[in-house]
Amino acid sequence: MRFDRSKALYERACKVIPGGISSNVRASWQPHPMFYERGEGSHVWDADGNEFIDYVLARGPLLLGHSPKRVLAAVHRQIDTGLMYAGQSELEVGVAEKMAAMVPCAEMVRFSNSGSEAIHGAVRLARAVTARTKIVRFEGHYHGWFDSHMWSYAPPVDAAGPREAPVPVPSTKGQPASDAANLIVLPWNDLDLLRKTMDAHAGNIAAVITEPMMCNMGALMPQRGYLQGMRELCTKYGAVLIFDEVITGFRLAPGGAQAYFGVTPDLATFAKGLAAGFPVSAIAGKRELMKYFGDLSVSHAGTYNAGAPCMAAALAALEELSADDGAVYRQLRMRGTRLMEGIRRAMPEAVVRGVPAVFHVSFGGDPNARDYRTYLPRDAEKYKRLAVALQDRGVRVVPEGIWFVSTAHTDDDVERTLAAVEDAAKVL
Ligand SMILES: Cc1ncc(COP(=O)(O)O)c(C=O)c1O
Known about the structure:
By secondary structure, this protein is an alpha/beta fold. The chain has helices at about 5-15, 70-80, 90-100, 115-130, 155-160, 190-200, 225-235, 255-260, 285-295, 310-320, 325-345, 370-375, 380-390, 410-425, and strands at about 35-40, 45, 50-55, 110, 135-140, 185, 205-210, 240-245, 265-270, 280-285, 350-355, 360-365, 395, 400-405. Strand 11 (about 350-355) and strand 12 form a beta hairpin.
């Protein structure tokens, strides 16, 4: 495949856009950050006209595939009617009602635009309600790019120190070191350690925040009883349990990871699965907490919050996801399972982990990895080579190993993808 036009655009972009990209995450693309022109269903076309079966799906949001027709029709109607009002529209009530019907913890909902913003709001609310400041978070979990949350996502182990008591490590230059004082970082999936920590800090912990499945690092699953134990500890110590469902929300199940694992948090954040690619995020949670946004004692604001076309997109997306008793999830599960099994067959040395809608492929890793540090030792370079080989064969995957599957992927996509995997495996 040739990427001449993408390369020329990249060089042009680098002159006016730092790094030629608008999110640092996009820098890892090989042979250079690519440019795209069109997406439809499960396929995407780049600036050189190359066509790919897409498992990047914008890193999660395109749960219904590219440009889903029903969602676009709703957005087009709304664009012709009105964009934003600095006031409410019936649409946002509809989305909140729909979320309340689908998501166990969602007694009330507030909308923002990105996952990072929703997390910012949820953590502020937890601190306000508990009148405490410390947040327990886990190594390897990503909770957005804001200063106080972008800690210990991918820390060098040397800098992070002992496993049982990691030092909070900032993820970028420019983060105030003082934020570390408000954080307690722990390894994930270790309930004893969480219990000891909460015992030791009883009365000081405002919230425990977790990805309910470690999607950003290896698609690691919670061990049996772990999330339930976390729930019980938070209740015991009066800490707010926050599930960061930015990836898992509406992807694992209509009710998100909390429905999938049967554990209900106090607050949860949603974004990527919510509005089929439109910038909508949400803080959802128990009325007794959310009411403090309503009495204005806790600030949550945003000029672009709940813009009408975005709300039209979210409503149409949620209607599609919940139609026919969640029929789309059955298809998603079936095709995702065939992909996972086919990849295992084609590359028996690969570790394939996760759930059919979002899974992870790696080489040389510990199949029983349970946290950031046990996930780390793997052959990341070999996987990057696989990603490049797949790209050359018309299959687009994230270079870090995660695969997102959409309701738009077809049986034919699965077959062609597995043929490409088998072929790529030969040249690795
Ligand atoms: C689990 C999780 N939380 C939060 C975020 C941040 O969301 P956004 O990029 O929309 O700010 C992400 C983004 O990848 C995420 O994966």
